[in-house]
Design brief:
Blueprint: E1 4-8, H1 12-24, E2 27-31, E3 44-47, H2 49-57, H3 61-67, E4 69-70, E5 74-78, E6 83-87, H4 89-97, E7 102-105, H5 106-115, H6 119-122, E8 125-126, E9 131-136, E10 141-145, E11 150-153, E12 155-158, H7 165-181, E13 195-206, E14 216-220, E15 224-230, E16 234-247, H8 255-265, H9 276-281, E17 290-299, E18 304-305, E19 309-311, E20 317-318, H10 325-347, H11 357-389, H12 394-403, H13 407-422
Parallel strand pairs: 1-2, 1-12, 2-8, 5-14, 12-19
Antiparallel strand pairs: 3-7, 4-7, 5-6, 9-10, 10-11, 13-16, 13-17, 14-15, 15-16, 17-20, 18-19
């Protein structure tokens, strides 16, 4: 058997992994637990320049632009509908990095990523595959699904979200290994690595009233904040509520929980003419156009095991959605991991050769080392933004009400942040023309020759 990757999870991050592997000439299969790869579920995502740059390198920006909406300034209100000032955050990011952030439904993003794959890659993707067990040897890995099917490969990439089965299996295998080698040699992750301080209700409803495509609104106030992104046909809001007691337990919410949530906060404005109750009553789409979830936060300590399993995206780290950082960081995870694997294959003569477990383990560790500090900073920053929007203390309330709306201060903040975003990578083995050219230069230039071919 040649080298083969088993990707678990067919969301945006897993599909970017499929593109990365396909372009590298690496064999793979992708296993998705839902009934189909492209499904109308979940809230909207915001793709920022570091994610857009990768989509551009893959040649997907025209298709992505057709299904997404550019974001400009953010109109801010308090719970009483009073104007808190306009944020120019998206404008500054666009000026610094050469492109506007864009809001897109999860369905449309996954459709763009899936439809653009070659037929031979699509043939390697399987839906309704719920992983039940993972076993490893010194040379390979086997994934068994609940339907009795099994898949054998060289490594598993866990792109299966915050409640990752791959991460759970990795922990179990680490515990088993520690019983043999001794606890001092083990690197066991926490069983529940993420802490939930906020819950959220998202609602999709027709774009109406004073809303226009591309509008971004926020409502801030004690314990609850709302984010709104308006598209051509539908608008999505996320309502973030601070919980009385943080928890590490997974909570599944019912329709009754949603209705109680709207009962508490339905009066809050989401624009000058609409309330949360208006949006909930007008909700549209599959799954009733609404859903309630916990907003987990945290960074897993160990992202790989034994050179055979590695985590990406929400399986490795989870942010509140306030900054839109989650999906973008998952994309960058895939880029970084793919580049490390590309370097490894170059060192052994190409993808047709089989790396050792030690070589794979070294690539996984280098991947985590490259990403770890940036991910922790992103997680902390996202949590701070959520705390500020929900006025968790007098200081952050003061900053939110009177400092953020100061154009000079805000421009300074995003000028400082631009340096960090400019360090985000692109694939070092895929040719591409740079499509994002702003005031701040990217640290890693886009490849425009065949220098980096690895197969």
């Amino acid at each position: 058997m040649g080298f083969k990757v088993i990707v678990v999870g067919g969301g945006p991050v897993g599909l970017v992994a499929a593109h990365a592997l396909s372009r590298a000439g690496i064999d793979f299969v992708l296993l998705e637990s839902r009934p189909s790869i492209v499904i109308d579920a979940g809230s909207n995502l915001v793709i920022n320049p570091m994610g857009l740059r990768v989509l551009g390198q893959l040649g997907l920006l025209p298709a992505f632009d057709a299904v997404s909406s550019p974001l400009a300034q953010i109109e801010r209100l308090d719970h009483n509908g009073k104007d808190l000032g306009t944020s120019q955050a998206f404008v500054h990011i666009s000026e610094n990095h050469g492109r506007s952030l864009r809001a897109v439904s999860r369905h449309d993003l996954t459709a763009v990523l899936y439809d653009s794959l070659p037929d031979e890659s699509k043939a390697k993707m399987f839906a309704n595959k719920r992983v039940s067990n993972i076993s490893i040897t010194d040379n390979d890995v086997t994934v068994i699904c609940r339907d009795g099917t099994s898949y054998n490969g060289s490594i598993v990439v866990g792109a299966d979200g915050a409640h990752s089965v791959v991460r759970d299996q990795m922990r179990m295998l680490t515990l088993q290994a520690s019983q043999i080698s001794g606890p001092e040699d083990s690197q066991v992750n926490e069983e529940q690595p993420f802490l939930t301080t906020y819950r959220a209700l998202w609602i999709r409803f027709p774009t109406q009233g004073d809303l226009r495509p591309g509008d971004a609104n926020e409502t801030h106030g004690r314990d609850v904040a709302v984010q709104l992104f308006a598209g051509e046909d539908t608008t999505v809001i996320g309502i973030y509520e601070h919980m009385d007691m943080p928890t590490r337990e997974r909570i599944r919410y019912s329709t009754a929980d949603e209705e109680a949530f709207v009962g508490r906060w339905g009066h809050l404005p989401i624009s000058h003419g609409l309330t949360i109750r208006d949006a909930y009553n007008a909700r549209v789409g599959e799954g009733r156009g609404a859903g309630m979830i916990n907003l987990e936060e945290g960074v897993v300590q160990h992202w790989s095991h034994a050179g055979r399993i590695v985590l990406v995206g929400d399986a490795a780290h989870k942010f509140t959605p306030s900054t839109g950082a989650g999906c973008n960081n998952g994309i960058v995870d895939v880029v970084t991991l793919s580049n490390e694997l590309a370097d490894m294959f170059r060192s052994i003569g190409g993808v047709h050769n089989i790396p050792t477990t030690a070589q794979l383990s070294a690539a996984f560790k280098a991947y985590q080392a490259t990403r770890f500090d940036a991910v922790i900073a992103g997680c902390v920053g996202s949590g701070q933004v959520t705390a500020m929007a929900t006025w968790q203390g007098q200081l952050v309330k003061f900053v939110d009400r009177y400092v953020i709306s100061n154009r000079t201060v805000e421009k300074f903040i995003y000028s400082r942040a631009a340096t960090g975003m400019a360090k985000s990578p692109v694939f070092d083995y895929i040719d591409g023309e740079e499509e994002l050219n702003g005031k701040v230069a990217w640290t890693q230039p886009m490849k425009s020759s065949n220098f980096a071919v690895i197969n």
